[in-house]
Specification:
With 126 residues, the chain is of the alpha/beta class. It is 34% helix and 19% strand. 29% of the residues are buried. One of its GO terms (cellular component) is chloroplast.
Length: 126
């Protein structure tokens, strides 16, 4: 199985929706061979930087997944902004949009995933 988006879940209307990475993990657990082709592999970040002609010092990854977005940024050597109101909101005790997460909870969760953000934001809106 080749998985181009290894995310486990995504947030849609404040509910978590299963993503291809969850299926891949189950398939691998059953004995299947899986090739992941996305975050947190640093090649995705390096390729994006090469496409726009910038280096790590001029880049920042923004995402709500410690395991995929932030860990990938760490591996690529670029800064990151962790959006706490996304897929980890429940784990962080966040119940409303824009609520600020407790810093000690963020630090504990970052240690759990071995993924350390440069910045922490409650939400991302445009």
């Amino acid at each position: 199985m080749i998985v181009a988006n290894p995310d486990f879940v995504t947030v849609e209307a404040r509910a978590l929706i299963i993503m291809p990475g969850t299926l891949a993990a189950k398939y691998e657990k059953l004995g299947g061979e899986v090739k992941l082709m996305g975050k947190p592999d640093k090649i995705i970040y390096k390729s994006a930087m090469a496409m726009v002609g910038v280096d790590a010092s001029d880049s920042i990854a923004v995402g709500d997944s410690l395991h995929h977005d932030i860990k990938g940024a760490n591996q690529a050597g670029i800064a990151s902004a962790f959006i706490t109101g996304g897929i980890h909101a429940t784990e962080l005790g966040i119940s409303s949009f824009g609520q600020v997460a407790d810093l000690s909870s963020v630090q504990a969760l970052a240690a759990k995933y071995d993924a350390y953000p440069t910045y922490v934001l409650p939400a991302f809106a445009w």
